[in-house]
């Protein structure tokens, strides 16, 4: 059996691809680096992380990117020995306008190196490439309408793509206007038995999310909507453990079995916060005699039958990262800037991750944060930190993080009358506050161990000077603020100013608001579920 979600934690908008006997999944990364996260499988049930596609500034610049901006809904495809990734780098979405430039990168190996990005259009987001049997390729995306009084989703457009030059040919054509569910986006096209099948995401990315199917004899339409719609949704079943089901892509095994990869959310209770973010799940697909795809019950399930493939599990990821490897492991991500020697190092002190203090927690520039996705409702994150703060402007510790406006932070700093000490700080929708606690004096030198225990909806921080005796730092904190639902903020007229599209992270954070880039050394970062 396949147990859903197959990619727990923040892994939304899955684009699934088979090349030979290998299956690959690409998911959105938004403001996190590296951009476009990849996973690999041989049996669709077991997946291993490969890291990211967009790993350096020449490939992706997220400087100043808004929360939940950045890389939206990439599409991974393959043709004539070349991998293609198309993606949107969302620079802005508030105020009625959308800044959504799209790009394509290519590589002859899934591990890269990837070519410099070639710009495409900026008419809409969620791009995908379809490579037809006649050798022609097409770029699809949604079409955005910024005009006041118009719905922003104006349907799905297609435009021919020249694989030799990476350029678009001709003008875009609207091929599908969507259904009454609205919010038509996330297009993917497949060809089967003489039909072109168009999958789209509709209903918005929340509780009414769904996968819609339409088909046509020509790629450019006209498309007929499946009379049994949607293919998949949890909109009418709020008690299902998997919610928000939508934004799907299809894959076929060599034996002819079809599966849909799609996103889901796991609320704490019925229609409650989804702290783990939007995750990736799978569902088997069968085809009717009339040629329409079907999923049993048209709803997401926690377990589904696996395909007829030999089981291929991967070695388990070690719980502890001792930072002895020459490069940062694929479980880690950085915020808005790539891992680079000008602010982070695995070599300055062997067996340690050194982070030089970056800008403030609310900054969208030069943030020194290395973090990993929260994948379970109950988990523990522990690490040691060693630093020599000389003022309240210098901080280093561990964080439970959602975005610049929602986080909890336990950190080593300096305070008048105490010297080196541990404190707590939280931010809730941009409102900075100090949770009730007594600052804890610690030895003037040496490492301090910090621990975050997450048992949703509660989060607790603890500390230890020797690694054996642990002391609570404050009381339980509300982890619900680390959710998509809590992060969304709208203006009084209902226009969304801040979106919530990611998920909770646990990580290592360092700040130096004096601008002196105080070094903080982290060791023995352990994540257990």
From TrEMBL:
Keyword terms of this UniProt record: Glycosidase, Hydrolase
One MF term in the entry's GO annotations: hydrolase activity, hydrolyzing O-glycosyl compounds
Active site: 13, 185
Site (Important for catalytic activity, responsible for pKa modulation of the active site Glu and correct orientation of both the proton donor and substrate) location in chain: 126
GO biological process: carbohydrate metabolic process
Domain Beta-xylosidase C-terminal Concanavalin A-like, chain residue ranges per copy: 320-528
Source superkingdom: Bacteria
Similarity section: Belongs to the glycosyl hydrolase 43 family.
Protein name: Xylan 1,4-beta-xylosidase
